[in-house]
Amino acid sequence: MKSSHMYLALLLPLGTFLVNDAAGESRIESRDRDIEFVGWVDPDKLYWRPFIISGLPEAQFKLLSFSESTRARSQITELPAGWRHPLGYHNTNEEIFVLSGDLTVGGEKMSKYSYAYYPAGYVHGPAYSEYGATLLHWWDGDPDFEASQESNPNTRLDEVVEDWNYYDQPWTDEKDFPRWAEVMPPPGTYHLKLLRQDKVTGAMTWINGGGGGGAIGRPEVWEVHPSWEEAMLLEGELTYGECLPQGEVVGTYRSGGYFFRPANIRHGGRSTYSDTYSLFIFRTSAPIWADYFPDCNNPSDAQAGEEGERK
């Protein structure tokens, strides 16, 4: 079968996107998320661009973040009413979280806060959207599509996640969620729903719900992870600090706000605050782990290993 190769028609270069900074100012920048924090992104201030994959109907997307090295990207994809996807597969992992609308894949209807993970080579579909849909959409490389009746040999079928919806799934029991700190917070501090964890890399996708009404977490310390971390605030509001090259920067996330944080950037601290609850969807490249530090300096990787305080 002849391969169908992907091409993108873009209004701007792929690595360029309109971003909202902590002060609320909009600007166009090109930043590689592998090496630089991308945060306080307000999707309402991003450009819609044509999203065209050979073999699939045209849609549109807003780029949230992009990796120059792997070509992975996080985006918001908008499917028009009547959009259809024939049976086939992608040559890169695809992860979908429905923000609104409807998407039926292989007879399984997805609605608001439905989730699916399709590993590279996994045949899925046919798919269609009756009224249109807005997706939070992750790709591990350049999107493509190949029409096929069968999955590729050696496809990791045990990694497939389908038929998952936030409203139907209970909160994950704390003992079943991977331990993520040397000293865990008191029970009930956070509410977690684990969507998936990669059986090889440990990469995770989960939902984190937290209460508001004041300071959140451990404001006396700064948190840091050895893997990258990204998230979108689905509901609520959260003010948060980041330890960036220019020092502590504080901004407020509101519904739809997005960030991608490379490994070893300290965050949180004394400015973490919410007058409301917050509901985030998170992803990491490895099992989540948190170390805590008393200050906002970001040491080198070697120093981090020597200076880490697990509290």
Can you give the mean pLDDT?
A: 86
Distance between the termini: 56 Å
Give the CATH H-level superfamily of the largest domain: Jelly Rolls
Overall tally of structural domains: 2
Q: What order do the SSEs take from the amino end to the carboxyl end, as H and E?
A: EEEEEEEEEEEEEEEEEEEEEEEEEEH
Overall, the morphology is globular
Mind telling me the C-alpha Rg?
Answer: 19 Å
Unreliable stretches (pLDDT < 50, length at least 5) are: 1-12, 25-30, 301-311
CATH class of the largest domain: Mainly Beta
Q: Largest sheet, if any? A: 11 strands, antiparallel
User: Helix/strand-derived class?
Assistant: mainly beta
The count of helical stretches stands at: 1
Helix content: under 10%
CATH architecture of the largest domain: Sandwich
Give the beta-strand count. Answer: 26
What do you see in this structure?
The protein has 311 residues and is mainly beta. It is built from one helix and 26 strands. 2% of the residues lie in helices and 44% in strands. The strands form five sheets. Strands 3, 17, 18, 19, 20, 21, 22, 23, 24, 25 and 26 form an eleven-stranded antiparallel sheet that branches. The protein has a seven-stranded antiparallel sheet with strand order 4-5-6-14-9-12-16, with no helix packed on it. The radius of gyration is 19 Å and the shape is globular. The N terminus and C terminus are likely disordered.
